[in-house]
Structures are given as structure tokens and as C-alpha cells.
Specification:
By secondary structure, the chain is of the alpha/beta class. It has one domain: Decaprenyl diphosphate synthase-like (Undecaprenyl pyrophosphate synthetase, 3-Layer(aba) Sandwich). Helix content is 47%, strand content 14%. It contains nine helices and six strands; from the N terminus they run H-E-H-H-E-H-E-H-E-H-H-E-E-H-H. The chain has a six-stranded parallel beta sheet, sandwiched between helices. Strand 3, helix 5 and strand 4 form a beta-alpha-beta unit. Helix 2 crosses helix 3 and helix 4 packs parallel to helix 5. The relative contact order is 0.19. The chain binds 3-methylbut-3-enyl trihydrogen diphosphate (IPE) (2 copies) and magnesium ion (MG).
């Protein structure tokens, strides 16, 4: 069957009134995808850019409001220098090349992570694209770059303790909303659906606070092969699930 036909058939089955507002994706498997073909790992990262385009377009097309993509973790700094450098320059090139498309599609670019640690060229390109897309309103694309959930939580704890020690905040008033406001995702609703490609069934320090009640979807498909159809399938699977939030199934059904 034609690829577009399959996409459309799956898309038509999605209940648009029960879409997750926010989908977060751990884009994994680039290196293995390339190595299986006898190619260098970097080729996998380069090929993964097409999946980013495809998935961003698909998410915007069906009305997802927030899409977070895990592009580079704090731990990824420990990879060989050549791979880190290649990833950083690929980021600059991709952000530059995609800026007109983001604007054309009315997509706002944001970023979570310790961007101070990024090479200057990458950081400046990113800040420029964030600024130039800041008025777009159809969907927010959030890149997690030099990000780890533990880093983010430490930042939040530091900021809260400082406010308490300066007398600006009463420790007794600390609640979920206050903690959420100190995270890099301030103002962004928690993802209802978290997808990891590449076959591993772990979280790898991604959005630990925010995915407390997310539905998790693990697929063996390597990121460079992940296409619209795979995203639509994950959403359809999500829509089959009963989200109970601690209640009984009967309570949720009668709601
Ligand atoms: C994900 O693919 C991209 C990054 C972590 C930057 P990997 O590079 O982790 O690919 P695998 O998991 O080694 O196949
Ligand atoms: C997680 O993938 C980080 C990103 C996708 C950016 P990794 O490949 O780095 O995770 P581990 O090492 O398998 O846990
Ligand atoms: Mg990996």
C-alpha cells in the first residue's frame, strides 16, 4: 500500500477529541541503525533528521500542542569527542535549515537543558531560532539538549532553597505546582504519552517528574526509520488505554 494511504487510514482512526496535548519522544537507535548497514554512527544521526521533520509535521498536522524531543542528554557528553562534535554541528545545520519551515508551519521552538554547556555556535543558533519562532502558536517543539531530569531537579531544589533562605518563600507552602514552576518545563503541561524508539525499555534520565503519570510506549523501530505511521500507531495505542490515576476502572468508566 502507498505510504500516504497507510498514514491517512491510521490518521482517520485517531480520536481528535482525545489527543495527548503533549508527546515526549526519546529518539534512540541512530547509531545501531547505521552500524547494521556497515556505516558510521554519525550517518545514523544525519538520517534521523528526516524523522524529526516527519514527526514534527505529523504531530502539528493532527493538533498536538507540545512535542518534546530528547536530542542530547547530559550523559551524552561522555561519548567520543568526534561523535559529540558531529552532533553539535548537525544541530547548528539542522536548526538553520529548518527555521523557514518552522515559521511556515507556525511552530514555536523551545529548549530545555543546560544550554550554557553547548558550544557557542550551537547555542547562538538555537537562541536565534527560538526568538524568531517565539510568536508561532500552532505547536511548540521543545528540544531537550544537554538535558537530564536529575540536573533539572537539582536546579529546582537550589532555586527553591534560595527563596526559602531569603525569606521569600515559606517551606510549608511548597507544593506540586510550585515545584513544577521551578522546572525547565515551567508552563508546559506534563506529557500524557512518552515514546522511546530503538528497543531499550528505560527512561535514561528524561523528564522524571513530568512523566509521573505518562503512558509509556516502547518500540523497537530505530529512530531513523520512525515515520508518521509509527507516531499514529503509538497515539492509537494510547487511546486504547484506560488512564485510571489510582481509581478503579468502574470509577473511571462512570465518569
Ligand atoms: C540516539 O541514538 C541519539 C543520541 C543519543 C544523540 P543513539 O546514538 O543513542 O543510537 P544507539 O542507541 O547507539 O543505536
Ligand atoms: C537517551 O539515549 C538520550 C537521547 C536519546 C538523546 P541514549 O542512547 O543516550 O541512552 P542510553 O545510554 O541507552 O541509556
Ligand atoms: Mg542510544
Amino acid at each position: 500500500m502507498e505510504k500516504e494511504v497507510t498514514d491517512d487510514i491510521l490518521k482517520a482512526q485517531i480520536a481528535l477529541n482525545r489527543l495527548p496535548k503533549h508527546i515526549a519522544i526519546i529518539m534512540d537507535g541512530n547509531g545501531r541503525w547505521a552500524q547494521i548497514q556497515g556505516k558510521a554512527r554519525v550517518f545514523g544521526h544525519q538520517s534521523g533528521v528526516q524523522s524529526v521533520r516527519d514527526i514534527t509535521e505529523a504531530a502539528a498536522e493532527i493538533g498536538i500542542e507540545y512535542l518534546t524531543l530528547y536530542a542530547f542528554s547530559t550523559e551524552n557528553w561522555n561519548r567520543p569527542n568526534d561523535e559529540v562534535n558531529a552532533l553539535m554541528s548537525l544541530l547548528v545545520k539542522t536548526i538553520q535549515a529548518e527555521l523557514p519551515t518552522l515559521n511556515k508551519n507556525n511552530i514555536r521552538l523551545q529548549c530545555i537543558g543546560d544550554i550554557e554547556t553547548l558550544p557557542e555556535a550551537t547555542r547562538l543558533e538555537l537562541l536565534d531560532a527560538m526568538e524568531k519562532t517565539s510568536h508561532n502558536s500552532r505547536m511548540t517543539l521543545i528540544l531537550a539538549l544537554s538535558y537530564s531530569a536529575k540536573w533539572e531537579i537539582i536546579q529546582a531544589v537550589k532555586s527553591i532553597s534560595e527563596k526559602v533562605s531569603k525569606g521569600l518563600l515559606d517551606a510549608d507552602s511548597i507544593d506540586e505546582a510550585l515545584v513544577a514552576d521551578e522546572l525547565a518545563t515551567k508552563g508546559i503541561p506534563d506529557p500524557e504519552l512518552m515514546i522511546r524508539t530503538g528497543g531499550e525499555t528505560r527512561i535514561s534520565n528524561f523528564l522524571l517528574w513530568q512523566i509521573a503519570y505518562a503512558e509509556l510506549c516502547f518500540t523497537k523501530v530505530f529512530w531513523p526509520d520512525f515515520r508518521k505511521k509509527d507516531l499514529f500507531e503509538a497515539i492509537l495505542d494510547f487511546q486504547q488505554r484506560q488512564r485510571r490515576f489510582g481509581k478503579t476502572g468502574e470509577q473511571v468508566e462512570s465518569f
